[in-house]
Amino acid sequence: MRVKCVLCDKIEKINSDLPLAKKLRNRPIHTYMCDECSDRVAQRTEARLQTGSFRKHHKEEETDEYI
């Protein structure tokens, strides 16, 4: 299966039997990011976390206020 990175537009081939390939075929909202771009984003995110002025947004736990 041919896939295109959303950041650098590099076209790569991945095995069609991989779970990632199935996810990309069946759910168009999912996007592919090459390993280089994924590593770069992870490194920059970690660097921002180290500064202390960047916070990761976690899914808030549901509360039972309205029940």
TrEMBL record:
InterPro entries xref list: DUF2197 (IPR019241)
Pfam family, one: DUF2197
Entry superkingdom: Bacteria
UniProt protein name: YlaI family protein
Organism annotation: Alkalicoccus halolimnae
